Amino acid sequence: KANRLFHPENSIISVDGEKIGGKRLGIIAGPCSVESEEQIIGIAKRVKAAGANFLRGGAFKPRTSPYSFQGLELEGLNMLKAAKAETGLPIVTELMSTKHIDAFVDDVDMVQIGARNMQNFDLLKEIGKTQLPVLLKRGLSATIQEWLMSAEYIMSEGNENVILCERGIRTYETITRNTLDLQAVPVIKKLSHLPIIIDPSHAGGYTYLVEPMAKAAVVAGADGLMIEVHDDPENAWSDGEQCLTPDEFDRLMDKAKRLAEVE
Ligand code: PEP
Ligand code: MN
């Protein structure tokens, strides 16, 4: 179902009145983790003013260490709802367990399946039984075929609202957090009709890499970007070293939108 052979036109996915996959870039921005209502509302207002059309913020966090902050969970979802009520931005947030699917169907506009759960087949099948738009991140060491098969798990259950997100893969390189596979954009466009966006924040792992790779993604033909933005990066509860400040995000948006027009 993800294969372009059987669906020659590009898919455009509707998410609460917004669209991903059309001419306009889909820009998802916000902090790695929701930390408080004031934090998420403040950042939501800033990213909206800069041109984001979706708000991200992790409430359930897939941390490498069990001793790291695990997210505010359902309380975090409520804070995202408050930020949506203030700004109108649709909510994108990660689901880690089938036990929270009902809460996500009620409150979330696009559910993120994170890199670490890309092959959690039970989770994929259950989310496939809903019509909730799904942002499916590429696994840490997943091939493009494996990634498309994960999309297939969701789509074969009846949910065709899938958007792919390349967020860097694990290679022998250690200077950057991951290695951004920009070739995934034209490869996915060749093999599939699904939209693909790029997350340069998790790919690079450092703020200075975000702008050049975001611009390159737009020129490569990505349908959108996911960017981590925090108003106080040094004190962020997760991923502070890779986020942009709202001012930096604002400047990036100007540049990215101009590049998108040239394309
Ligand atoms: C995230 O978006 O905060 C995240 C944990 O991403 P990934 O699954 O790509 O590591
Ligand atoms: Mn993060």
UniProtKB/TrEMBL annotation:
Enzyme nomenclature, EC number: 2.5.1.54
Keywords associated with the record: Transferase
Domain DAHP synthetase I/KDSA: 21-256
Molecular functions per Gene Ontology: 3-deoxy-7-phosphoheptulonate synthase activity
Keyword Transferase: yes
Enzyme class, spelled out: transferase
Lineage of the species this protein comes from: Bacteria, Bacillati, Bacillota, Bacilli, Lactobacillales
Organism: Carnobacterium antarcticum
Name recorded for this polypeptide: 3-deoxy-7-phosphoheptulonate synthase
